[in-house]
Model the fold of this input.
Amino acid sequence: MSAEKKEHQKSIAEVRNSLAEAIERARYFDETTVLTSRKKRVAVIVGMDFYERALEALGEQRVLVDETASD
Done:
């Protein structure tokens, strides 16, 4: 039996005005925020622990991208 995970659903515009709140829920309370655009679910804010467990379960590795590198 799996544990229930709290999930919040907010539009991108709503989260833009309260990003710190969504990050706090993910970081400290292990709660997910699903971002919507035109009522379609498009992305998720999750805590690092959850993200790392998901990557491990999928057998995937992170590859960090240097956003400051010039072409």
Remarks:
- Strands lie at 7-11, 32-37, 40-45.
- Residues 8 and 54 are 19 Å apart (CA to CA).
